[in-house]
Design brief:
It holds the Pfam family DUF4209. InterPro entries: DUF4209, ERMARD. It contains 30 helices and no strands. The C terminus is likely disordered. It is elongated and about 100 Å long. Helix 8 crosses helix 9, helix 26 runs antiparallel to helix 27 and helix 28 runs antiparallel to helix 29. With 666 residues, the protein is an all-alpha fold. It has three domains: 211 residues, no CATH class; 175 residues, no CATH class; 218 residues, no CATH class.
């Protein structure tokens, strides 16, 4: 691994020139009055005239534009430094209201008054995040689906219609285009060190945001439109994210940062600032600063282990950055095996955690949501920040010198590393399926507690318990359970009551605790999991409908408001759910068992896998029909039982032929 001390920049030579030098080549002094009216409004024509265009196709000439705008940015920065906070608030605060996060922009003004480079970089990351979200809200005044990427948003016709194409071209010089300064990306992806981001560009973006607010106000008045802000993402079930212990680790974290080989020395101020922010309860700031540095450190490992040191630097506009997505992939873009997981001592832990918090669609997707402005920075959860800091500390420890043995053995660090070593994905589709199954089983276990009519008023219904056909079906369930014994703990089945002794919540919990590797899960496995999740979701909906329907009918029974036909249907329902309960529990057991063996099946015989997937889809069709038949407006209990019998026969037939997944895996 390359020594972090030897890395002096993560900006490629052309990108370093564009950001750090190009805008300083013109030494002209620009008069702020040229772009500022007497009442403090931005004179946009005077700004847009500095954007240059190529003669060939009239597209933006980013090099000439940056060079021309350099003195303008310098003038704006000096102008802001001449203002007091009170003057700035009076003059500009109202022009930031359209962003729905005025305080963030006022904080950026405070940062510009200091000489702290880390603060400027943090301010720019927050500014671009909030600006992107606000521009997306404006886009929705005229369009439907807001583009996910900032470059596509800035190039949209919808924003050009509101602000004017010339104004949007000014913005693209600073953010959104890989041909321009591209300030958002080089910061959020961890390429720029604090000293490499000129404060004047931050000042200019602050100035331009106020100018956009002025233009928008005019547009809204002319069109009589109202700007609606999309709601922020709200994190629920934060306890699911709890992987690491509390913040006692901060007591030695700064020492780790200074000694770990994972930290690029040019980025050390970011790490220190992140830990300081956490101590000050500025949790969003802490995570915003940490995530790019985790990416930078992992990029150093990635480029070293895969022998592509040139990719440590920012790629040119014609190539891709080396980002989290590629570093976490199984293969490189040339189809060679990614060596990063081999080097990591706990590859599954690092990758699972990062996938959970950054990539999985049902996870918090912290980096995406922070960088695109989807999270309220003022109420960012401490719980999430704690997990990111905890993960960062484990990485620092893992890549530290042996001389730090005493730190690694510290009473605070050891439990942290222990948590890291046993981390399992919480948001992978397989993990989510386990959660679904257990929630569904909890719901079905409520059925015996449902209020019923007195037994003497119940009637035996054709096709249900109490006759030979029903007994045969109960026997069929028992036989299927018997075939699953190989995958269950010993002595979990009672000969006296094989159904109720096996189809329990306790057994499913035990089976779901079985570790299943989710890293680099094959596509066929994911296809199976998608179907299994749909089956589980339908089973849960059936259970909820049964509980709600039984409660309603019992109340109506007591109040004597049921007509004769409804009373008969209610009795039919009560008898049906006694039989339906073990069937649904059996399906949940099948789902859980298949999770253990699904990898083997998909690798062993693709044809058998396809046959089994077809079978699963037929089970899904059954559960979808169950949802329809058991809905309050249908109550088709005879059809429910007939369909259930056919499905059980099909399951038994597939089982006998050994085409079921659990048999293919043996």
């Amino acid at each position: 691994m390359a020594l972090p001390d030897s890395v002096t920049t993560c900006l490629s030579q052309p990108v370093h020139y564009v950001i750090c030098k190009l805008g300083f080549e013109k030494k002209d002094t620009y008069d702020i009055d040229n772009i500022l009216s007497g009442n403090g409004e931005v004179c946009w024509p005077a700004v847009t005239e500095h954007v240059c265009y190529l003669e060939s196709d009239q597209s933006v000439d980013y090099i000439k534009s940056i060079r021309s705008l350099g003195p303008v940015c310098e003038s704006v920065n000096s102008y802001f430094k001449s203002l007091t906070k009170e003057q700035f608030v009076i003059q500009y605060a109202s022009w930031f209201h359209w962003t729905n996060c005025t305080e963030v922009f006022l904080e950026v003004f405070d940062v510009l008054q200091s000489t702290q480079a880390t603060g400027v970089a943090l301010g720019l990351m927050k500014l671009t995040s909030c600006l992107e979200r606000a521009l997306g809200d404006v886009y929705l005044l005229k369009g439907n689906d807001c583009p996910f990427l900032l470059r596509d948003l800035l190039a949209s016709e919808q924003l050009a219609d509101v602000f004017g194409q010339a104004v949007m071209n000014v913005l693209r010089v600073f953010i959104g285009s890989p041909h321009g300064l591209n300030l958002r990306n080089v910061l959020w992806h961890g390429f720029a060190s604090p000293q490499e981001i000129p404060a004047k560009y931050c000042a200019m973006l602050l100035f331009l945001t106020a100018g956009l607010g002025q233009l928008l106000q005019t547009y809204l008045l002319q069109t009589k439109s109202v700007l609606v802000h999309r709601p922020y993402v709200i994190f629920i079930s934060l306890e699911e994210l709890d992987a690491f212990p509390g913040n006692e680790i901060l007591s030695i974290a700064e020492e780790l940062v200074k000694l770990s080989s994972f930290v690029l020395k040019i980025m050390l101020p970011f790490w220190i600032a992140a830990l300081t922010a956490f101590k000050q309860s500025r949790y969003a700031d802490s995570v915003i600063l940490l995530l790019p540095q985790l990416e930078a450190g992992l990029r150093l490992l990635f480029t070293t282990t895969n022998k592509c040191p040139n990719r440590l630097l920012t790629a040119e506009s014609s190539a891709l950055y080396t980002t989290f997505d590629e570093m976490l992939a199984k293969h490189l873009d040339n189809e060679e095996v990614n060596q990063l997981p081999v080097v990591l001592k706990e590859p599954a832990m690092e990758s699972d955690f990062l996938w959970d918090f950054l990539n999985h669609q049902e996870g918090p997707r912290i980096r995406d949501r922070l960088s695109h402005g989807e999270i309220n920075l003022e109420t960012f959860p401490r719980e999430i920040a704690n997990q990111i800091v905890g993960f960062a500390i484990t990485i620092l420890c893992r890549f530290s010198d042996e001389a730090m043995f005493s730190l690694k053995e510290h009473m605070v660090i050891k439990p942290l590393m222990s948590c890291a070593s046993c981390y399992q994905s919480r948001f992978h589709p397989i993990s989510q399926l386990k959660k679904q199954v257990l929630e569904c089983m909890k719901s079905i276990h409520l059925w015996p507690e449902l209020a019923t009519v007195p037994e003497e008023k119940e009637q035996k219904i054709k096709g249900l318990e109490g006759n030979a056909e029903a007994n045969a079906l109960i026997l069929m369930i028992s036989e299927i359970i018997s075939q699953l014994q190989h995958y269950m703990p010993q002595n979990c089945c009672s000969s006296d009551d094989p159904i109720n002794s096996v189809l329990t919540e306790r057994l499913l919990v035990e089976l779901c605790d079985t570790h299943i590797c989710t890293l680099y899960c094959p596509r066929p496995v994911l296809e199976v999991v998608v179907v299994l999740r749909k089956i589980s979701a339908q089973c849960h909906q059936v259970s909820q409908q049964v509980i709600a329907g039984a409660g309603l009918r019992h109340t109506q029974w007591l109040n004597k408001t049921l007509r004769s036909r409804q009373r008969h249907n209610y009795r039919r329902m009560l008898n049906s759910i006694k039989f339906l309960s073990p069937v649904l529990r059996l399906i949940l057991l099948l789902i859980t068992v298949e999770l253990v063996s699904v990898h083997s099946v998909c690798k062993k015989n693709p044809f058998d896998y396809q046959q089994y997937l077809k079978f699963l889809k037929s089970v899904l069709q059954y559960t979808e029909n169950l949802v329809t038949y058991t809905s309050p407006d249908k109550n088709k209990w005879d059809e429910t039982m007939e369909l259930t019998k056919k499905t059980l026969i099909k399951i038994k037939k597939i089982s006998d032929r050994k085409l079921m997944l659990m048999h293919l895996a043996t």
